[in-house]
Design a protein that fits this description.
By secondary structure, the protein is an all-alpha fold. It has helices spanning 2-25, 28-47, 51-78, 85-91, 96-118, 123-137, 141-148, 153-179, 183-194, 202-219, 225-253, 258-267. Helix 3 (51-78) packs across helix 11 and helix 5 packs antiparallel against helix 6. The longest helix has 29 residues, at 225-253. The protein is globular, with a radius of gyration of 19 Å.
């Protein structure tokens, strides 16, 4: 047991130190997220008056911005060079169809489920459990898209599922430590909002960091409007760092095994 704990701590230490270095080179991701959020707000305002066509427009803008974000995170995680304005421009259009594909594959069964739950007295409870399972099993979908690069949306879902089954302890422990103080109700609230899009909705990328920041600021003694304002200011930075950390952690876990990591811990 002591060796398992030692290997896990070494894994997190390595991922954290690599994330600090990557963020120092890729701080521009936080600035890009602010610009992307403004673009998403503008797209939402335009789409609101276009009916069904507006929904397609908003979906396309979302895929464009999420794909661009994943591309920037990929550069920060994989390349030992600073990000520049050129990288932000070239990121637009990257992973667009991958995000669209996964969203479409999930949209159909979730739409059927939603209609079925409307007529079921236990619908809210069933929906909460379904979204919780999706939140867990498809949690690494963003990393699968830009690191594994599967050939189809179904492969993204399959590889996310298999990764979680193999590495669920190491993958979720950092998040659990941040969420546990706020109880199961907070977890189900977050999973209900994030589970339906496999972490591939732009606002959802920033929802969890914002909610965690707001709650931890309350824990730290902040109160009043300053909580929302400070959390809002820090959210792009926290989102960028969290996604970079996830990228490094995924890279360390994918293609590895607990036994291999134990052996590396013994020999290091």
């Amino acid at each position: 047991m002591a060796e398992i704990i030692q290997a896990t701590l070494a894994l997190y230490k390595q991922a954290f130190l690599e994330s600090v270095r990557s963020f120092a080179r890729g701080w521009m991701i936080a600035a890009a997220l602010v610009v992307f959020a403004i673009a998403m707000q503008f797209a939402g305002a335009v789409a609101g008056s276009l009916g069904l066509l507006g929904g397609f427009l908003l979906g396309a803008v979302n895929a464009l911005l999420v794909g661009a974000t994943l591309s920037l995170i990929e550069i920060a995680v994989n390349m030992a060079r600073p990000l520049g304005f050129r990288d932000v421009g070239e990121s637009l259009g990257q992973y667009f169809w991958e995000v669209i594909g996964v969203g479409f594959v999930l949209w159909i069964p979730l739409m059927v489920l939603e209609r079925g739950m409307a007529a079921n007295p236990n619908g809210p409870m069933i929906g909460a459990m379904v979204f919780f399972l999706l939140f867990i099993l498809l949690n690494p979908a963003p990393e699968v898209i830009y690191q594994v690069r599967p050939g189809s949306p179904l492969e993204v879902i399959r590889q996310s599922y298999e990764f979680v089954l193999e590495n669920w302890v190491e993958w979720f422990l950092p998040l659990a430590l941040l969420i546990v103080p706020f109880g199961a109700s907070f977890l189900f609230s977050i999973s209900g909002r994030l589970g339906g899009a496999a972490g591939l909705h732009f606002y959802e990328l920033m929802t969890l960091p914002y909610e965690l920041l707001a709650r931890w600021l309350i824990q730290a003694g902040f109160s009043g409007p300053s909580i929302s304002m400070l959390a809002l200011i820090l959210t792009p930075i926290a989102t960028a760092f969290m996604m970079i950390f996830r990228g490094h952690l995924f890279a360390s876990l994918h293609g590895s095994s607990r036994r291999k990591r134990l052996f590396q811990a013994r020999t290091s």
